[in-house]
Amino acid sequence: MSGRLSHFHGGLVLRHHKQSSCQPECQSAGIPEQLMLALSTPRGSQSKALVQVGERVLKGQVMAHPDGHFGMVVHAPTSGHISAITEAATARADAPSGPCILLQPDGQDEWLETTPSPLPTDPAAIIERIQAAGIIGMGGAGFPTHIKYQQLQVGPTTLIINGAECEPYISCDERLMLDHPSEIINGTRWLLQAAQADRAIIAIEDNIGGVKSQLDAAIKAQQLADIEVVKVPTIYPTGGEKQLIKVLTGREVPSGQTPLALGLIMQNVATAKAVHDAIEHGRPLLERVVTVTGDSVAEPRNYWALIGTPMRHLLDLAGCDWAQTDKLIVGGPMMGYAMPDADIGIEKTTNCLLALPTACTKPELQAMPCIRCGDCVQVCPQELLPQQLFWYINGNDQTNDLEKAREHHLFDCIECGACSWVCPSHINLVDFYRYAKSEITYLDQKKQKANLAKQRHDDREARLARIKAERQAKRRQKTAKLTDKSSAKQEISAVLARIKQQSKEAADD
Amino acid sequence: MTEALNTRGAPHLPSRISVQRVMRWVCLALVPATLAHLYYFGLGILIQMILATGSAYLFEWWCLRWRQQPLRPFLTDLSALVTAWLFVLCISPVAPWYVAVVGMFFAIVVAKHLYGGLGNNIFNPAMVGFAVILIAFPQAMSLWLPPSGLMEANPSLGLGELMSWIFMGAPTAGIDAVTAATPLSAILTGLQQGFALSEIVTQPIFGDFGGQGWEWIANWLFLGGLVLWYKGIITWHVPAAVLMTTIAAATPFYLFNGDLYLAPQQHIFAGGTMLAAFFIATDPTSGCSSDRGKIIFGAGVAILTVLIRNFGSYPDAIAFAVLLMNMAAPMIDRLTIPQPYGKKPQDPHHG
């Protein structure tokens, strides 16, 4: 990094609300009475359970295997008995519910005996170790980490470690960087090797104080020249993959492609820490840091929580006043997902639980018509025209208008919510874009199916017509031969001559 | 308890912005220029404000009821007030009462509600109202007061006299003693009578740049516009495009024949240019969406204004220029869709 940063279009400067939860020590949330481990993963894949109801599992034991491309390995976060494998609510917006393993901890926290394996030496072995540890992107998207490295093309590669939590309230990454800088640096080193990358940039926001010196000290201690810590301006959504790449490199990820197209690979700091644990200690991903905060919570704090810990357990630890809680949000206030209840297990991607009383949440407001003021255009980090998108989506379910939305680059929307945030008419714009995206995708699929069916039908018609034509041609040939007098005569005389010849030969013999 | 958790979607934090807040800032930005108007042209504007605002809200209420829309949010959004205010700043302070009523009928009922209400109007409502009365009542629109401090005889008209003038009709006797043309119509009349511009502008109403009083109203409008820009209500694109294109378009004509065509500063300060630049062409509903589109829109308004003023039969032209560009706005929008992140044609680091 030459120290010169670029900037992305628009964005918002928001109040951080991070101090209160980041200041206190990170505590262990302990072992709850029950763990709820989701088997569905962020990209619509599922993991297949390998355990039976009633079976005792040990800490670190594999309970489920990937079933499909984006599936992940699920380990038992502690020892206990499987009480059920059932459908339950998830902590994600993409699928409100899915299959889930319920684990009754026995409190002994007994590890599965494993023989320590030697440190991996080549990239493939590192990637295999990452996959076996059940590591997926811990920043929120939950993309299985190993897949990024499998898709990697040969060429100069830069690894970006994302420590920029752009949303207010969330402080788990900051706390992790303060507490475990050398582990993160070490994990980064392993990821560098896995990607065969030239260098790594650790991006942190400029509003977090002591983190840079901590990380720099760890880099110095390990004598690494290819890892650099860079402070980026705290503008929402800097932590978004596309925006952070623009800030750090001045380049834009081509629409519809991944950062790999630019020779870039991005991981969250928590993922780097998990990689360190997996490779150096052979420990699979069993727990993560979760920020528990919001005005309903008496003592905001970060917790080390076992994957599957019910949200209620964490919120009770932090002293949540349930009676006055209006919303329980997984993630931050801009893109987070409001949960229907608190008896849902946290996942590997759950970075923050935000409990807000009525006074702190957006009230139900009468949405006014869009006056096209253009405030949304000013803040859109993807340089879209949100008001035009809304115009074409609102109240229209005719495909031609949705087509216009597509022409206005609907599918480049990253759903950051900056437009909804500044809309003076209180229109929840992102809801409209989500609707339109799914509607267009559905219509596309339908159209594709219809086209395929039509193609098949046309092919069949053509085939039948061809067969019919061939048959007709043959028949025509035959009848033509018979009806044509001269050729018929010729044929008859030829036959007669042949017979004569034969009878003559017979007579000669 | 937890059963009652609210699952409404993001964003989750409350915000203080509203349509009403946007409109409130527009109104606040109009206050200095309105005070200047009051100072130079007397109490007439207050009476016109009451007339226009009153009829605007009456029509608004009537249309909302007729369209079965909720009354409260739409009557409190202040958009009708903005329309009425902009309209009043365009008309003569002594225009007869029906001018404001007819103007507001076309602004609120025709231009706004017949097109679908707030946010759906294709044309700027205030300019529709203004254009209608320009065409319907040319006589009344040409009758202005001289700016204060100019004529000895200009009695700052008392409230009673103003009221009788506005409601009962203009006094027939001695009207020339108390009225004056606007600078732009004085120029048009002068040119039609065969005078050269250099002769015309020696009349005292012309002040330093564009017109006594007028230029100060323009200055205060400029200040109000800067406030709107600073508060993020408008962006710089439209005002910059209008003002710079006006200068760019007017200068060649002026250099070609300064006795026939207005000087650039007269274009800026004499008529409604400043109002158009910051308050009318910036109307987002009837304007363009993208930054590039806004610049084209503003430039179009300026070019049309200069052309109509130089060659047309109307002294000022902002209403027609804005309405013509309103027509073009959807097409400009279609042609200026910006390339978003990741779709720009040239990546400097690529290829």
General description of the model:
The complex is a heterodimer of chains A (509) and B (351). With 509 residues, chain A is an alpha/beta fold. Chain A folds into two domains: 19-106 and 123-306, 3-Layer(aba) Sandwich (Rossmann fold); 371-509, Orthogonal Bundle (Fumarate Reductase Iron-sulfur Protein, Chain B, domain 2). Chain A contains 15 helices and 17 strands. In chain A, the strands form four sheets. Chain A has a six-stranded mixed beta sheet with strand order 1-14-13-17-15-16, sandwiched between helices. In chain A, helix 12 (399-407) packs across helix 14. Chain A is elongated, with a radius of gyration of 32 Å. Chain B has one domain (19-335): Ammonium transporter fold. The model of chain B has no long low-confidence stretch (mean pLDDT 86). Classes of the chains: A alpha/beta (509), B mainly alpha (351). At the A-B interface, helix 7, strand 15, strand 16, helix 10 and helix 13 of A face helix 1 of B.
The major sheet of chain A is characterized as:
6 strands, mixed
Helical amount of chain A:
25-40%
> Helix and strand string of chain B, N-terminal first?
HHHHHHHHHHHHHHHHH
What is the overall number of helices of chain B?
Answer: 17
Gap from first CA to last CA of chain A: 108 Å
Structural class of chain A: alpha/beta
